[in-house]
């Protein structure tokens, strides 16, 4: 298979490529005609006690409250050391043991099978399994739906593994939601996130009336007190030792002050050190003589109670020493409730408290805390002014606004509904001709412009020769010129000394190698057999006969599985026109036995395949056995071919019936298949293999599967991306997690063109599907899944 060019300029997100119109869904959304969407929410979730669990729960609840057209299904990360009970928790679709790789695999499978429109992942290094939470990488690799990423920790100076993990997530994301401008800029500059995918949505906050602190003080028995509050899971990262140290100076001026420290100790800290941090703070308070001015609310509060407790305070303190912290949910809550905030200049505070919305102080300074608090408590007008400015700022982040922005984010991320393509109009050859010169067909392109740096290869010119045998609406002279050009390349690739074909040629027509890959040699044999069977030109057919006879004896029927399969397809093509051709018949027997033996060795209950890994052009292995069984009358070969083709076909159909090719990320990974990158070659292989299966069995389900693969070219895919253009005959190089690859290389153009002619042949087969038409895959989901016969 041709490697993709190194250029990344045109590996664009859908909005850049011109293939997918994302803005339409946004416009519809704003016109109050929102599309019904389903998302999977992945993260920690209540009743687990952590900030991310609260945030994930907030997304779930606020979307349901303000945007019921979006349904969220929650996959909750559970800590095996402190298992939570999710019995009866609304929205739970699955629970993932964060340390169990099999749980991530099963969750990804369930999400893919559910057919959600997008997956929204909350990322924090500590909530996923493995070193630095690296298990998240394999999980996202398995997801087919567009990924919305919310990274909650972005380090300026990450460790090597931390850096690699976040870069992997960024590369997989279709949209990235952050809660601060700093986070957006850091992701773009440090982690390579494309600016057009980044979206800042401020942390949501409640919408409550202003100025009710006296009412809530009365409720909690705090009447007559000046109340300072800090909330959150306790740990050294809160900087509470500095706030405690500031209390003597505050109490000296305001003896009615009460500092309320609300929250349980962080579970991880409890596991490692018990309550030593809290006990140390209590001992320090006693030493300073301010124990009576501190109230410890030692428990985790649900959101409603937390808000009630926050309403009872005058000043909210966040003396955090970690100035890299980019998000604080409680800071957002405090501002929205109209609380005067005294804070160190961590990232979120610097952004949210700008324009005198809060009071920023130097970090790790008890004196700075005392000075700021005493100033505000000593000047009621200054205190109220700060509170009112905070409340006004908080109107920008209240839950209805957060939910609306989140809904737009989801709409932009979700792939358009799968489309189908009616009929089989013949594609233009413009794209083929633009990629062809007097030497042959170029390998790669940047956009639609041929990239001469990568020269030519036998693989593509063999494919191009097969196409030249089939093209319609082209004068015979022009068809002959193309066929001769590609045939000349194949002929020149033969290295007589080594008795093997070469593959890669530079633009200056010098060869890059003396021997090409086994697969490229097998494809040359295939092209010679197909040319002998398909070419309308007697002279070209005679040329193909000569070179078939000259080169075919060099092919080993026990080599690379795909090389053997390709050569078998060439032998089958010749056997169809010369049923007694001994060399072809012998090769089909030997190759069929070889593939059947591979299957017997590799098969296991959940893996009906020839190898432990899936590669490219997978259906060709099954197709070769189907052809051999059909032509030789070998029922065992035919049964193996049909069985394995059904198995691979079932794994290439999504929940909505759309074709989902085995992704190139699968290559080299044993016993798993991944959804990206998706390549046109796989759709062509599925169509041609099912054509062979239909010809052998007359079973209509193969036509249904071929239609699903054909519609993949026109938007019935995981990103709703139109890859093929009838008017030019070009085809994009595939689909990555962000959408289509805008380059139009030879392999992709030829895959589309050859798939078209296979579809024509399939639809005109005697005994074809009486229903006909191209009605899409959704209403034929069960059939198109191709259960094994």
From TrEMBL:
GO terms for MF: glycosyltransferase activity
InterPro entries reported for this sequence: 6-hairpin_glycosidase_sf, Glyco_trans_1, Glyco_trans_4-like_N
Domain of life of the organism encoding this protein: Bacteria
UniProt keyword Transferase present: yes
Keywords annotated in UniProt: Transferase
Annotated Glycosyl transferase family domain residues: 214-391
Region (Disordered): 1-22
Organism: Aurantiacibacter arachoides
Gene3D superfamilies xref list: Glycogen Phosphorylase B
Record-given protein name: Glycosyltransferase
Any GO BP annotation: carbohydrate metabolic process
Domain called Glycosyltransferase subfamily 4-like N-terminal: residue spans: 73-204
């Amino acid at each position: 298979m041709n490697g993709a060019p190194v250029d990344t300029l045109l590996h664009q997100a859908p909005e850049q490529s011109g293939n997918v119109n994302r803005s339409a869904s946004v416009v519809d959304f704003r016109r109050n005609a929102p599309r019904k969407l389903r998302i999977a929410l992945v993260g920690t979730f209540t009743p687990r006690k952590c900030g991310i669990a609260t945030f994930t729960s907030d997304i779930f609840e606020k979307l349901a409250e303000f945007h019921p057209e979006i349904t969220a299904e929650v996959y909750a990360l559970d800590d095996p050391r402190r298992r939570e009970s999710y019995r009866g928790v609304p929205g739970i679709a699955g629970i993932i043991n964060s340390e169990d790789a099999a749980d991530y695999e099963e969750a990804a499978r369930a999400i893919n099978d559910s057919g959600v429109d997008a997956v929204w992942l909350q990322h924090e290094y500590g909530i996923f399994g493995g070193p630095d939470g690296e298990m998240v990488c394999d999980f996202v690799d398995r997801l087919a739906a567009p990924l919305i990423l919310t990274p909650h920790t972005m380090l300026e100076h990450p460790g090597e593994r931390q850096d690699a993990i976040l870069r992997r997530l960024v590369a997989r994301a279709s949209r990235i939601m952050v809660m601060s401008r700093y986070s957006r800029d850091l992701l773009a500059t440090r982690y390579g996130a494309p600016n057009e995918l980044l979206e800042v949505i401020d942390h949501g906050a409640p919408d409550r009336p202003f100025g009710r602190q006296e009412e809530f003080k009365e409720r909690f028995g705090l009447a007559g007190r000046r109340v300072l509050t800090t909330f959150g899971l306790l740990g050294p990262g809160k900087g509470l030792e500095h706030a405690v140290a500031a209390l003597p100076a505050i109490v000296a001026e305001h003896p009615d002050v009460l500092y309320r420290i609300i929250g349980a100790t962080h579970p991880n800290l409890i596991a490692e050190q018990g309550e030593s941090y809290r006990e140390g703070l209590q001992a320090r308070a006693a030493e300073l003589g301010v124990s009576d001015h501190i109230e410890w609310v030692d428990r985790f509060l649900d959101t409603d109670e937390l808000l009630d407790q926050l309403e009872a305070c005058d000043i909210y303190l966040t003396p955090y020493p970690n100035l890299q912290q980019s998000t604080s949910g409680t800071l957002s809550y405090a501002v929205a409730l109209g609380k005067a905030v005294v804070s160190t200049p961590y990232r979120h505070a610097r952004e949210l408290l700008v324009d005198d919305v809060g009071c920023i102080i130097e970090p790790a300074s008890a004196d700075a805390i005392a000075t700021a608090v005493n100033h505000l408590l000593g000047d009621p007008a200054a205190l109220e002014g700060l509170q009112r400015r905070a409340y006004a700022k908080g109107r920008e982040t209240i839950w209805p606004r957060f939910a609306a922005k989140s809904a737009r984010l989801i709409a932009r991320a979700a792939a358009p509904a799968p489309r189908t393509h009616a009929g089989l109009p013949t594609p233009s050859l413009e794209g083929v001709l633009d990629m062809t010169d007097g030497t042959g067909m170029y390998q790669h392109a940047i956009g639609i412009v041929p990239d001469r740096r990568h020269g030519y290869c036998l693989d593509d010119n063999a494919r191009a020769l097969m196409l030249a045998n089939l093209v319609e609406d082209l004068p015979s002279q022009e068809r002959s010129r193309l066929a001769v050009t590609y045939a000349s390349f194949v002929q020149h690739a033969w290295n007589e000394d080594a008795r093997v074909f070469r593959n890669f040629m530079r633009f200056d027509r010098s060869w890059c190698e003396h021997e090409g890959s086994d697969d490229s040699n097998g494809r040359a044999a295939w092209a010679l057999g197909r040319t002998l069977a398909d070419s309308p030109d007697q002279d070209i057919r005679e040329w193909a006969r000569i070179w078939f006879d000259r080169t075919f004896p060099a092919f080993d029927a026990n080599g690379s599985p795909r090389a053997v399969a390709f050569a078998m397809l060439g032998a089958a093509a010749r056997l169809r026109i010369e049923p007694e051709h001994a060399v072809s018949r012998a090769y089909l027997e030997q190759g069929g036995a070889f593939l059947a033996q591979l299957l017997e060795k590799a098969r296991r209950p959940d893996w009906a395949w020839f190898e432990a890994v899936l590669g490219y052009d997978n259906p060709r292995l099954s197709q070769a056995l189907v052809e051999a069984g059909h032509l030789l009358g070998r029922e065992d070969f035919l049964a193996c071919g049909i069985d394995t083709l059904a198995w691979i076909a079932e794994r290439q159909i999504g929940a909505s019936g759309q074709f989902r090719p085995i992704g190139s990320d699968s290559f080299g990974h044993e016993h798993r298949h991944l959804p990206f990158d998706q390549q046109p070659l796989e759709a062509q292989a599925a169509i041609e293999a099912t054509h062979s299966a239909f010809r052998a069995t007359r079973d209509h389900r193969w036509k249904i599967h071929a239609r699903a693969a054909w519609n993949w070219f026109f938007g019935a895919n995981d990103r709703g991306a139109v890859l093929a253009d009838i008017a030019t005959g070009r085809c994009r190089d595939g689909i990555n997690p962000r959408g289509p690859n805008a380059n139009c290389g030879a392999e992709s153009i030829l895959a589309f063109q050859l798939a078209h002619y296979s579809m024509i042949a399939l639809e005109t087969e005697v005994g074809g599907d009486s229903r006909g038409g191209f009605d899409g895959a959704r209403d034929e989901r069960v059939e198109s899944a191709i259960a094994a016969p």
